């Protein structure tokens, strides 16, 4: 028997760990279950906002904003419930200072929130990765097909036009009169125009020499005058530039949406961690108060 025990003194260091994995696991699993239930509920409500019929579906902005708000609500509710259960399920720490009890409760709530967040993030990542994988496979197949077609157009003047410029090529070589459709189509001219458009699209500009050459081909194929052919070339090239600007605008908008989503998501997670910690501290305090009241009520009367 040690000297401290013979004097009736409490040991300075406890032999038990300050971390209770039972309450942490219980709160985490409760948070995971509530998250999945609320996500399914939100999915069902979201599907009611989408309709294949024209004019009966909500706008994409409304659907996106509603989904973001619902995800934040789900995060906060599940964090609060998981943290509160973590605090209520742990046993009372005897001979521990009140400040230390508060710290342990908040730490338990934070750990419970972290475990639940990791599980939910892994579940959502595995679910979304399958959908993203299918979309990426389809996009990769389309890109491969387009690349193969472009390579064939560049290697042979008699090959078909590249898919990425076929629309603009058809617009350039569209006959002025319907009777002109009976003329034999020269595939070499179409392939050459496609190669010119592809090269100029990569370089980012169309030199005057290419414009003049394309206009001469259009004039020879369609029967238009040089001025009208040059006007048609300028119109189609303007459509190409507008398409590029629209694509860049869409990409920039997607970038801004992704950045905003990441910022809001990180702030929501931080608030969820705080809610879980505060709820665990509240649950632990209520649990200790209930036990103190119970012990007080059982004391014998003097």
Descriptive notes:
Helices cover 76% and strands 0% of the residues. The protein has helices spanning 3-6, 21-48, 60-89, 98-155, 166-172, 187-203, 208-222, 226-297.
Descriptive keywords:
single chain; 302 residues; mainly alpha; 0% strand; rod-shaped
Sum this structure up briefly.
It contains eight helices and no strands. It has helices spanning 3-6, 21-48, 60-89, 98-155, 166-172, 187-203, 208-222, 226-297.
Give me the secondary-structure topology.
Layout: H1 3-6, H2 21-48, H3 60-89, H4 98-155, H5 166-172, H6 187-203, H7 208-222, H8 226-297
Helix pairs in contact: 2-3, 2-4, 3-4, 3-8, 4-8, 7-8
Q: Summarize the amount of helix as a percent range.
A: over 70%
Number of strands: 0
Give the termini distance in whole angstroms.
36 Å
What's the tally of helices?
8
Q: Secondary-structure element order, as H and E?
A: HHHHHHHH
Q: Major sheet: size, sense and barrel closure? A: none
Calculate the mean pLDDT score and round it: 74
Uncertain segments are 156-161, 178-183
What is the alpha-carbon Rg in Å?
35 Å
Q: Structural class, from secondary structure content? A: mainly alpha
How much of the sequence lies in strands comes to under 5%
* Shape label: rod-shaped
């Amino acid at each position: 028997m040690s000297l401290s025990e013979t004097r009736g003194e409490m040991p300075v260091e406890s032999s038990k760990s300050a971390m209770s994995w039972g309450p942490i696991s219980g709160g985490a699993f409760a948070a995971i279950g509530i998250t999945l239930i609320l996500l399914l509920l939100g999915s069902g409500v979201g599907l009611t906002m989408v309709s294949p019929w024209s004019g009966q579906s909500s706008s994409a902005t409304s659907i996106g904003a509603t989904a973001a708000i619902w995800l934040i609500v789900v995060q906060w509710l599940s964090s609060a419930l998981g943290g509160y259960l973590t605090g209520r399920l742990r046993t009372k720490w005897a001979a521990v200072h009140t400040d230390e009890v508060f710290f342990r409760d908040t730490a338990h709530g934070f750990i419970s929130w972290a475990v639940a967040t990791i599980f939910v993030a892994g579940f959502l990542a595995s679910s979304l990765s399958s959908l993203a994988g299918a979309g990426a496979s389809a996009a990769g197949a389309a890109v491969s097909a387009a690349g193969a077609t472009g390579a064939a157009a560049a290697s042979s003047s008699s090959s078909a036009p590249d898919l990425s410029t076929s629309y603009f090529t058809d617009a350039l070589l569209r006959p002025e009169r319907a009777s002109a459709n009976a003329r034999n189509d020269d595939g070499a001219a179409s392939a050459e125009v496609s190669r010119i458009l592809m090269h100029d699209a990569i370089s980012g500009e169309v030199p005057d020499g290419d414009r003049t050459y394309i206009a001469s081909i259009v004039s020879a194929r369609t029967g238009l005058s040089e001025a009208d052919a040059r006007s048609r070339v300028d119109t189609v090239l303007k459509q190409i530039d507008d398409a590029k600007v629209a694509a860049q605008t869409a990409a920039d908008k997607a970038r801004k949406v992704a950045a905003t989503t990441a910022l809001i998501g990180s702030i929501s997670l931080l608030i969820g961690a705080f809610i879980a910690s505060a709820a665990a501290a509240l649950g632990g305090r209520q649990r200790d108060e209930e036990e103190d009241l119970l012990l007080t009520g059982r004391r014998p009367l003097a």
